[in-house]
Design brief:
This protein is mostly beta strands. It has helices at about 55-70, 85-90; strands spanning about 15, 45-50, 95-100, 105-110, 115-120, 130-135, 140-145, 150-155, 170-175, 180-185, 205-210, 220-225, 245-250, 255-260, 265-270, 280-285, 290-295, 300-305, 315-320, 325-330, 330-340, 350-355, 360-365. The strands form 6 sheets. Strands 3-4-5-6 form a 4-stranded antiparallel sheet, with helices on one face.
Length: about 375
């Protein structure tokens, strides 16, 4: 089987507690690429910043093994150069994620009909894949574990330029049961009216998945892109929402309500902490960009930065740790800074410096 690994990119790994080799969180020294990098065991309040998750790589290898084991046995073919089609085709396994308790593995992979489907494997019974979700004329795009047994996923069409709205959103249990559509994938969809203050119908395409929540809950957070002047006109395909508000949505009953007691005007993006509370918001209005935050448990919002939105040095929050430390880029694209949101005087300190590169990473949390 020919494999195309694509273009290699350097990957750095940093531990918030400073355990990664080549990273000095106090001095902010440059991290060095090391394929054999190691750190302390995952326990308690350990938080990792990773470019590419090692667990996902292991899960992908397992998924490929599952697919190989379920395929019909065949005589090995002699090695040959890949065809143009093989070289440009999508990888067989697109993504893989472990459930929060580590007992199940969900993955998206292409089926015999050419479309990407959502599969789940019970790791106590190797090589048994459950075909959980699929579309007849679309592909499963991204998916997320809501809890140890339930997932949400959306759609895209990799075979044409057909628009699928925001991708819609569906929920399903890991065994394929209790399937529910949460968000429509059609721009022409209009939400049904229930005649009460609580709605329990499919949400329109002005909504999109935002985040899961900690704990054993069937709720998720979705973002609603609010247009004070109605939907965008047909000749303008660019969304220009006036602001974004967060909604808490139950993935079984579809009941939803406002995530915050008080809406904030002109907010374009949000950042939640590890307890699922909205702590950071960014608003843009009248040529002023504000980054505001609130202390843990406080209803009051304070200004962290206020600048022209075209200023070359803007604060870009990326993660909030369990200790109320905010991690953000600030001017230097290859540096991640850290401040203590509890401190009376907030001082930005380099946490990770990558000389010669821009920062582009993801955060993984082990509790």
């Amino acid at each position: 089987m020919a494999m195309n690994t694509g273009q290699y990119r350097p990957v750095w790994v940093a531990f918030v507690d400073g355990g990664a080799r080549g990273v000095d969180t106090a001095a902010g020294t440059r991290a060095t690429p090391d394929p054999m990098i190691r750190g302390p065991s995952a326990r308690g309040d350990l938080r990792r910043l990773i470019g590419v998750g090692m667990r996902v790589a292991a899960a992908t290898a397992f998924a490929i093994a599952c697919a190989a084991a379920t395929a019909a046995e065949r005589t090995p073919e002699p090695a040959h150069a890949p065809t143009v089609e093989d070289f440009f085709r999508y990888p067989f396994v697109r993504d893989a994620k472990l459930s929060p308790d580590g007992k199940l593995l969900a993955l998206t992979a292409f089926a015999s009909d050419g479309y990407a489907r959502l599969f789940v494997a019970d790791l106590s019974k190797p090589f048994a894949l459950h075909d959980v979700a699929a579309f007849s004329e679309a592909d499963v795009r991204q998916f997320f574990w809501v809890n140890d047994r339930r997932l949400v996923y959306d759609a895209e069409d990799l075979h044409s330029d057909r628009q699928t709205g925001n991708g819609g959103l569906w929920a399903v249990d890991w065994d394929g049961s209790d399937y529910v559509q949460l968000i429509a994938a059609d721009f022409r969809f209009r939400q049904e009216k229930t005649g009460s203050s609580v709605t329990s119908r499919v949400l329109p395409t002005t909504h999109a998945f935002f985040s899961t929540l900690p704990g054993d809950t069937d709720d998720i957070v979705v973002a609603e892109y609010v247009f004070r002047h109605g939907y965008h006109v047909r000749t303008n395909l660019v969304y220009n929402p006036d602001y974004v508000r967060l909604i808490r949505l139950h993935t079984r009953t579809r009941e939803h309500h406002a995530f915050l007691k008080r809406e904030l005007p002109w907010v374009s993006s949000w950042l939640l902490d590890q307890d699922g509370d909205a702590r950071i918001a960014i608003s843009i209005h009248d040529n002023v960009r504000k980054v505001i935050y609130r202390e843990k448990g406080s209803p009051e919002w304070k200004v962290l930065e206020e600048k022209n939105p075209y200023d070359p040095i803007l604060l870009q929050p990326v993660f909030i740790g369990f200790d109320d430390s905010l991690y953000a880029t600030h001017g230097s694209r290859g540096t991640v800074f850290r401040i203590d949101l509890k401190a009376a005087v907030q001082e930005w300190k380099p946490f990770l410096v990558i000389e010669g590169f821009d920062y582009s990473g993801s955060w993984e949390v082990d509790t």
